[in-house]
């Protein structure tokens, strides 16, 4: 009689060992980069989209390297205190590792880095639970953008619709989502069908570290582009 997969045991010691090895590898890789690149930036992000992030990394791979991982592990890699820091001033950067963030090592000039992060923005469809950036309302009447076979699906999403001579018709005004409120699973599906993109994948620089300088950017969202002569 074949054994049930549900009876299969997982050795926790092996799992813990693998996890420890991965963390140690991450710490080593980060520390190696301290000698390979001229600058380190801590950056935060919102509405992460893995494919778009991978494309952004690919463009910069010849001059830069990104790290995402557990914040505590990244802090250990740099040094959580002045006594533990791998290089002078790194504990200040470590203190800014919190929330959704990562490390960016690069040999690019400061002005080019700031410009690249400021200009980066990728729109996508909002996911369930995200906050609506605008109110989307549909007026009573025909919804000619939807084919007749979509009517049952739209009804399941809570929309007051019916078929009228083969055309999907909204029998009353309907609010898909309201600005400032969380987007429901149903609203997320409808917004995708309508082609409305509310999620903006952005990255913001928090600070810059070099062996000779440490700089905290005043605001993450609105940084003034520095003089090109400042960065190298």
Automatic annotation (TrEMBL):
InterPro entries according to UniProt: Mrt4 (IPR033867), Ribosomal_uL10 (IPR001790), Ribosomal_uL10-like_insert (IPR040637), Ribosomal_uL10-like_insert_sf (IPR043164), Ribosomal_uL10-like_sf (IPR043141), Ribosome_Assembly_uL10 (IPR051742)
Keyword presence, NADP: no
Keyword Cytoplasm: yes
Keywords for this protein: Cytoplasm, Nucleus, Ribosome biogenesis
GO annotation, cellular component aspect: cytoplasm; nucleolus
GO biological process: ribosomal large subunit assembly
Subcellular location: Cytoplasm; Nucleus, Nucleolus
Main location group: cytoplasm
Family to which the UniProt record says this protein belongs: Belongs to the universal ribosomal protein uL10 family.
Matching PANTHER family: MRNA TURNOVER PROTEIN 4 HOMOLOG, MRNA TURNOVER PROTEIN 4 MRTO4
Protein name: Ribosome assembly factor mrt4
Organism: Physcomitrium patens (Spreading-leaved earth moss)
Gene: LOC112288781
